[in-house]
Amino acid sequence: MTPELRAILDRFMYEQATVTHIVMPLPAEGAERVVDGTGWTIRQLVAHFADSQEGYAAAVGRWLAGEPVEPAGFDRDRANAETARANAETPLPELLVRLRKSLRALSAAFHAVPDERLAEPFGAHSAVETFHRWERHYLDHGLDLLDAVPEVRFDPLVLNWILYAEFVDEPSKVRQQQLMQEVRAHYAAMPDEAIEGEA
Fold first, then answer.
1. Residue 37 class from Cβ within 10 Å (0-12 exposed, 13-18 middle, 19+ buried)?
2. Is residue 32 a contact partner of residue 42, using CB atoms and an 8 Å limit?
3. In the chain, which residue ranges form alpha helices assigned H by DSSP?
4. 142: which of 23, 41, 152, 190 lies 20 to 30 Å off by Cα?
5. What is the pLDDT of residues 145-155, one digit of tens each?
C-alpha cells in the first residue's frame, strides 16, 4: 500500500473514530435528533456512513475484477433514501457495530489494490482521486452533526477535527470560522482555573 493510500485509510479511521466519539454518549432518544442538510436522524446518518463504506469496498472489488464500478441502474439518491428508510428504527449500538465492520471491509479492499493501479480510471476519475473524494465523506456531514449534538460543541477532540479541517465549499468555511469565534468567546469567558482543568 502506497503512503498516499495509507493516509486515505488513516483519515477514514480518524474521522470514523471522531464521529463515534460524538454519538456514543447520546441518550437513547438522542439518536432521533434530526441532522440538518439531510433530514435524517443521527441513527440514519450513521447507517448512511456504514452503507457508504460497504459500497466503497464493493466498488473496489468490482473494479479490481474488471467490472463496472457501479452496478447497472444504480441510483445514489434512491439508495440513500432506502438506507434511511430501512434504518429508521435500528438501534444505534447495532449501527455502530456495522460501521466498524464496514471500515474493516474497506481496509481489506484498499489493501488489495496494487500500487500501480492507483492512476487507472475508476469511474469518472482515477482510483486515487476517487478515494480522496471518498475520504471527505464524514467531513461533508460534520458541521451538521455537530449542530445536532451541542453537548460536544466545545469538546477538544471534536474541535481538533472540525476547526483544522480543510473545507472546500464557501458555506462550510464560513460556518467553520463562526465556530472558531464561538470557541474563542467560550474560552475567553471561562476562569483561568477552568481552562487549566480542561488542558
1. middle
2. yes
3. 3-23, 42-64, 76-86, 92-111, 127-134, 137-148, 156-163, 170-188, 192-198
4. 190
5. 999 999 999 99
